Amino acid sequence: MDFSKFLADDFDVKDWVNGAFKVAQQEAPGRADAHAATLVMKLQLFIQEVNNSIEESSIQALQNMPRVLRDIEALKQEASFLKDQMTMVKEDIKKFEQDTLQSMQVLVEIDQVKSRMQLAAEALQEADKWSTLSADIEETFKTQDVAVISSKLAAMQSSLAMLVDTPDYSEKCVQLEALKNRLEALASPQIVSTFNTLSTGETHAYTPQHVCRSVTQHYGHKRLDWEFIIYSCLIYKYVSDFSVTLQSIRKKYKFEEAPTSEVFTEDWTAFQNSVRIIATCGELLRQCGAFEQQLSNKILGKAGRFLWEGFNPRSLSGLQEGGAERRGQKNPWQEYNYLQQSSMAEYNNLLETLHTLKEKGTGNSSLLSETRSALTRLNQQANQLAFDSVFLQIKHQLCLANKPEFRGSAGLGETLNENLPTFSLSPQEYITNIGQYIMSLPLHLEPFVTQEDPALELALHTGKLPYPPEQGDDVPELENTADYWLGSIARATMQTYCDVILQIQELNPHSTKQLATDIDYLSNVMDALGLQTSRTLQNITTLLRAKPEEFRQTAKPLPRRLSSTVAAMRGIEY
């Protein structure tokens, strides 16, 4: 018999019994009782077998239980021992750190004493060396050996550098200068004779050879790499610190935090300070551009002679032909191109840079593109800081429009006020505060027009304000910085106002009329400043003024999502 069906999750006793008797009826009809007795016997045997298996498993588990408990107890003891060991190691490490700190302090003091002693010993050696050399120099001059004399004078020069603080330092300088003049007088006739005889072998004694030149180039290149790393890190560190300072200013004025007070206050201190910061960024951009142009002019002036007529860095044949032509024209006594000999790739990069400067002009170079980009990002942060400082009070007042107590309440006379005309309502305080604030903006933005500051003008034209004009709008303010700022703040006000309105959950008829009145007041302020009311705000006004029975027809040409939101606020089926 197959007992695996008993393990199935969907096992049904009736189905199993019916199936068993169905098979029995087919094989031996009329013997249902005998078949039932056989099934009962088999099931009893199976039950007995299962019981025996369970009993064996239980006995085995009971036998293994003490061993498991012993293992757990041993593991617990080992964990406790490990904890004690870790505590001891921690104390040892702490003690080692304290001892190491004291030892390091002693070593630092010993090293300082050692350095001072070494400097003192070197000074004494150099002083003694000066005395020895100054005593022997007269005998050396008698030999007429220019190489030996020059080497001793060089040694005296290095010794003199260590004797700066001695009382007779000026006398020694005069003495050394006199010896140099004697060496020059001694070597001049020999140098003139060498050039007159065109003796290349003798000229080697008066100039460093290629090995020395290569060593000089190597260390010069290393110094250039070092200066590049140091000054680039300095610039980026300055920009990073400037950016951190701007972030701290934002935290101080709580630009990202929700308003804690409903009182409207006009404080233009933050904006005035932000304007000064923008002017500083503009000065950085101006100096960067001037330095970049000066650098381009100097590079093109110094190295432009390596460009030949018809040079094209993207043409290999032109490069080779031009190079061969110039090699045939140059004088080897007047020109030796070490960069071309040491690194042809860097030489070609130099030629391509020179070609770009010559074609585009030094005013459009990109030699300091990374630095200019970093300063541009910094200037953008400063412009955003100034914008947020102006828009902060407007944003706080607009947040009040979503509060029930500021949306207007009809009270007991709501049924009487529903049929009153719209002109009986007056704008609420929050929107009049915003309107007066926006009307005063041209006065505070006037320095952008009247103040002749090239740095500020450059920074304002380089920076980009949020909330650009919508497509198709006529925006003459782009030609005037103050009008551009006024337009951006106005668009930010209208966009934020729309966002706040669309978050309102419910409007009764009186609140609907009051909100439409507030929007009309803001639209009148925009018209007075010569600015256009945003299409979204106009659509909201249209939907708020529509009668419930005419709402569906009014909303047809308007955006469906906006219409659905306003209908839900007014409780109109749409």
Automatic annotation (TrEMBL):
<comment type="similarity">
    <text>Belongs to the COG7 family.</text>
</comment>
<dbReference type="GO" id="GO:0000139">
    <property type="term" value="C:Golgi membrane"/>
</dbReference>
<dbReference type="GO" id="GO:0006890">
    <property type="term" value="P:retrograde vesicle-mediated transport, Golgi to endoplasmic reticulum"/>
</dbReference>
<dbReference type="GO" id="GO:0007030">
    <property type="term" value="P:Golgi organization"/>
</dbReference>
<keyword id="KW-0175">Coiled coil</keyword>
<dbReference type="GO" id="GO:0006886">
    <property type="term" value="P:intracellular protein transport"/>
</dbReference>
<protein>
    <recommendedName>
        <fullName>Conserved oligomeric Golgi complex subunit 7</fullName>
    </recommendedName>
</protein>
<keyword id="KW-0813">Transport</keyword>
<keyword id="KW-0472">Membrane</keyword>
<dbReference type="GO" id="GO:0017119">
    <property type="term" value="C:Golgi transport complex"/>
</dbReference>
<keyword id="KW-0653">Protein transport</keyword>
<dbReference type="InterPro" id="IPR019335">
    <property type="entry name" value="COG7"/>
</dbReference>
<feature type="coiled-coil region">
    <location>
        <begin position="65"/>
        <end position="99"/>
    </location>
</feature>
<dbReference type="Pfam" id="PF10191">
    <property type="entry name" value="COG7"/>
</dbReference>
<keyword id="KW-0333">Golgi apparatus</keyword>
